[in-house]
Structure formats: C-alpha cells, structure tokens
Write a structure and sequence with these properties.
By secondary structure, the protein is an alpha+beta fold. It has 3 domains: 176 residues, 3-Layer(bba) Sandwich (FAD/NAD(P)-binding domain), CATH 3.50.50.60; 119 residues, Orthogonal Bundle (protoporphyrinogen ix oxidase, domain 3), CATH 1.10.3110.10; 107 residues, Protoporphyrinogen oxidase, mitochondrial, domain 2 (Polyamine Oxidase, Chain A, domain 2, Alpha-Beta Complex). The strands form 6 sheets. The chain has a 7-stranded mixed β-sheet with strand order 8-7-18-19-20-17-21. The protein contains 17 helices and 22 strands. 39% of the residues lie in helices and 22% in strands. Helix 9 packs across helix 10 and helix 13 runs antiparallel to helix 16. A hairpin with a 4-residue loop joins strand 13 and strand 14. Bound molecules: flavin-adenine dinucleotide. The site of flavin-adenine dinucleotide (FAD) has 36 residues, from helix 2, strand 17, strand 21 and helix 17.
Length: 487
C-alpha cells in the first residue's frame, strides 16, 4: 500500500528561493490539493537565506528595505497572494499625505506636474507652468497634438525612438528616461516600448496624440473614482494608494511564504550546478548529491536558467542567455529629522541621466510608509547603477555612500553625518527587456511548452515586478499539476 502511494506521488523541484520560487512552490501544493495529485515539493536555494532580492531588516528602530519595497495593487496576482497568505490585514498603504514624486533639475527637486504619467502630460497647464523643462522643450512636447500617427505594423521602436519622435529629445531626457528607464534601470535607447509600456503604442494608434489620450484617460479615471466613491458611500476614498507593502517590510511576505511552504522540503545553501533530462523526468546535481524529479521549475534569472537548460534544450538556452541583466545597489541612509529640515511630503525623486549624478533615484522611505523610522528619524534609500551607470558600482561601499550623501546635500540640505548607512548590491538582477524581447519571449515560451514537466518563472520574461512573477508562478504550477492530473 505504502509503495503504491510512493509510486503515485510526483516530485517537483523548484530551483530558486526568491518570491518566484517560493510562490510557485506554494501554488504547486495548492493545485495538487485541488486536483487530487499526490505531490512532494523540494525548493533549492543557492544562498544562505530565502527571498532572493527581497529582504528587509531592522536597525535602531528603522525598518530597511534592501531590495523591493512596494507591490503595485493594480496587478491582481500580488494582492491575491497576500490574501492567500493571510497578510491582507497586515498590509500598509503609502502615506495618504504624499504629494507625488519629484524630478531633479540641477540642484532643485521639482514636483512631477499633475496629470503627467510616465511619458506624457495629461494636463497642459501644470506641465506648462512646471520648471522641469525649458519652454522650447515644452513647445516640442506640445507638437504631439498635431503629429500624425505612425503606420501600424512599422518596425518596433525603442522607448527613446518613440519618445523622441512624438515628444522630443528634452521629454526623453527629462521625463521618460528617469521615469520609465528608471523602473527597469535601463537605457531607453534599447528598451522595448512594446513590451514594457504597450499602452502608449495603443494610445498612439487609437487617439494619435499621446497628450490627448492622456487627457481622456485622466478624465475617465476621475469619473471612475467618483463613481466608486458614490457606490461605496465612502467618504475617505480608497483604503490604499497604488502601492502597498507589509508591516515590517516585504520580508513579512517572504516569512509568510516560507511558513506556507512548511510541507515542502526546503534547502538553502543548495546551488543546482547541472540539470539533465532522463527517460522519466529530470536529474539535478546539487553539491555531490543527485536529485531526481518528475518536473522542475527554474525560478532563477534568465542567465542561470540558460546555464541549467544547456543540456536539455540548447536553442532555449541560447534564447535565455540573450536576455541581458543590469546590476544595481541600494543605499539605505538613516538621519535624525533635525538634520533634514525641509524633507518634502513626497515618495522620493528620480534623477535624469543628463544630470550626471551618482544615483538614479531616491525613496523617502520613512515618508512613503509610516513606522519605518523612530519618531525623530528619517530614512532615505538611494538606487545606484543600472544599465546606464554600471560604472558607479565599481567603488567600495564607503565611496558609494560618501558620493550619495554629497549628492543629497545639494537637494535636501542635509546637515552632518548619517546615523548609519547600509549598501546592498544586486549583480545582474534587473532584466532588460530590449527591442526584440517579444520575439525572444515567444520562442522561449513555445520551447518551454514542448518540454514536459519544465517551467520558467522570473523577471526575464513577462514582467519584472513582484505581481508579474507571482502570476507566472501560478501559471507554471497549474500547467505542471494539470499535466500530472491527466496521466
Ligand atoms: C533593488 C531592487 C528593487 C526592486 N523594487 C521593486 C519593487 O519595489 N516592486 C516590485 O514589484 N519589484 C521590484 N523589483 C523587482 C523584483 O523585486 C524582482 O524582479 C523579483 O523579486 C525577482 O524575484 P525572483 O524570485 O524571480 O528572483 P530572485 O529574487 O532574484 O530570486 C532568484 C533566486 O534564485 C537563486 N538561484 C540562482 N541560481 C540558482 C541555482 N543555480 N541554484 C539554486 N538557486 C539559484 C538566487 O540565489 C535567488 O535567491 C526590485 C528589484 C531590485 C533588485
């Protein structure tokens, strides 16, 4: 009886213990229960801790996010996972007093004008009055209102080509590069607009002018917000803003995922060094141990996935290897409130590359979320590196921090030395979806589908944010368990 049970049981190995691997393992077990499949799950993580790039810590009453700090609410997979993990009551929204974000120009921090969304202004008056661009640049942006649309089916453009054509060079340098390029820490000259921001191409095709389309979008959103407020009878608006985190930082989500996977075999310090196909499934090498599995999930960056899939599917491996990654670092810096007298009520600021500074963005962590610093403290977090500034990473932690503080003095009038600071480096962690990514991704997904019991989850594929990766994990789990259930 026991032997029959063991034969029927399927073994899935998940490689990688970041959000992607941990959530896939969770969904595998959920799906197995729902579909009546007997399942054993093993999660193998190379490092000595769970979470991958996601981790938080506390120091002297400050809560530091080392990697991601927020989950966007509008992509449902992230919020659905929080609910399943029982974290929906422990979520924290961004501070309702936030007035938005800022953009650097010289030594000034300039509020992003109302109605401006990522690339284009939706309201002309606040944009026209903002000192973020020259009059010449603003007039060129306005030309978008009369420029013709590009023929449908024309070759793919990079973010830079698209913005330069519709809104001009200054819009690219002062708005699109820091705001959109900053999300991907990418060089806009190569970033795929159709993969990263397809809505702007659709706007051009549908409305011709981006400014006009943005205006319609802003009006529609306003009406929608009024309607839902009337429908709910609410007086105080939505419970959260666009982004949420957890009490105690996103480490809380990792801890909940680890607990939710308690029935899985979970191994840290276990780098997988090779993966082979066998007649009945897969064989993995971990240190001097061989592990056999009926199915494997590679929840790692595309580069290690390329190495691991080399002997299984060389063409797939080549496509995976062709997805570039950029490196970044985060620098958390704690101050006393009295050292920064005029900290704006903003989430933070982005720095256009043309400014030639040492950081690409800075989050006012203790303003963005409550309870991230003691009553008399301020926590800031700077981003360094990315595809356009990898050279800024080739310095010691000390030099990097000194340069960041020196930049901050210009914009925030910081006095004295910080209470403490920490640097966290993420080498080859930020996937760069470049022009042509859609074709590569299509090939990768079709090659993956043809391999039984094989799935790829990670930020090299459909999206780089946590909800994108969670959604991929859920899809992968459904596919693997449904195939087992059909046997
Ligand atoms: C600094 C920073 C800030 C970010 N901010 C946000 C944000 O605010 N919101 C948001 O939604 N997204 C953000 N992102 C993006 C998002 O965090 C990541 O895309 C996502 O967390 C990646 O999760 P993952 O599990 O796919 O990969 P990872 O977290 O990189 O995990 C992959 C794991 O695989 C392991 N591994 C690799 N090779 C092997 C092997 N051979 N054997 C075993 N294990 C292996 C690695 O050690 C790692 O732990 C940010 C990313 C960074 C770096």
């Amino acid at each position: 009886m026991q032997q029959a049970h063991a034969l029927a049981m399927k073994h899935v190995v998940v490689i990688g213990g970041g959000v992607g691997g941990l959530s896939t393992a969770y969904f595998l077990q959920e799906q197995a229960r729902e579909q009546g499949v007997e399942l054993r799950v093993t999660i193998l993580e190379a490092r000595d801790r769970w979470g991958g790039v996601t981790s938080s810590s506390t120091q002297d009453g400050f809560t530091l996010e080392h990697g991601p700090d927020s989950v966007i609410r509008t992509k449902p997979a992230g919020m659905a996972l929080f609910k399943k993990l029982g974290l929906d009551e422990k979520l924290v929204g961004t501070n309702p007093a936030l007035t938005g974000s800022l953009i650097v120009r010289g030594t000034k921090l300039i509020p992003i004008p109302k109605g401006l969304y990522l690339l284009a202004p939706g309201r002309m008056l606040p944009f026209a009055l903002s000192p973020m661009m020259t009059w010449r640049g603003k007039l060129r942006t306005g030309l978008d209102l009369i420029l013709p649309r590009r023929a449908a089916g024309a070759p793919e453009e990079s973010l830079a080509q698209f913005v330069r054509r519709r809104l001009g060079q200054e819009s690219l340098e002062r708005i699109a590069q820091p705001l959109v390029g900053g999300i991907y820490t990418a060089d806009p000259e190569h970033l795929s607009l159709s993969h990263c921001m397809p809505q702007f191409l659709e706007m051009e095709q549908e409305h011709r002018s981006l400014i006009w389309a943005m205006r319609k979008r802003a009006n529609a959103m306003k009406k929608q917000a009024q309607k839902s407020q009337q429908a709910s009878g609410a007086v105080s608006g939505a419970r959260y803003g666009l982004f949420v985190s957890c009490e105690g930082g996103l480490q809380t989500m990792i801890a909940a995922l680890v607990t939710a996977n308690s029935e899985a075999e979970m191994c840290i310090n276990s780098p997988v060094t090779s993966l082979e196909r066998t007649e009945s499934g897969y064989e993995l090498q971990v240190s001097d141990e061989k592990i056999v599995a009926d199915a494997v999930v590679l929840a790692v960056q595309a580069q290690p996935a390329a190495l691991l899939s080399k002997n299984i599917h060389p063409e797939l491996s080549e496509d995976l290897a062709s997805i570039p990654y950029a490196s970044v670092a985060t620098v958390n810096i704690a101050f006393k409130k009295s050292q920064i007298k005029d900290l704006p009520d903003a989430a933070g600021f982005v720095v256009p590359a043309v400014e030639g500074r040492h950081m690409i963005a800075c989050t006012f962590s203790s303003v963005k979320y409550d309870n991230r610093a003691p009553e008399d403290g301020v926590l800031l977090r700077a981003f360094v590196g990315g595809a356009m500034h990898e050279g800024h990473l080739n310095v010691s932690d000390e030099t990097m921090t000194t340069r960041i503080i020196s930049d901050l003095r210009d914009w925030l009038k910081v006095e004295g030395e910080p209470l403490f600071s920490t640097v966290h480096r993420y080498n080859n962690a930020m996937a760069q979806p470049l022009v042509g990514h859609a074709q590569i991704l299509k090939r990768i997904r079709s090659q993956e589908q043809r391999l039984d019991g094989f799935a790829l989850v990670g930020n090299g594929y459909e999206g780089v944010g946590i909800p994108d990766i969670v959604a991929q994990g859920e899809d992968a789990a459904q596919r693997i368990i449904s195939a087992f259930a059909e046997l």
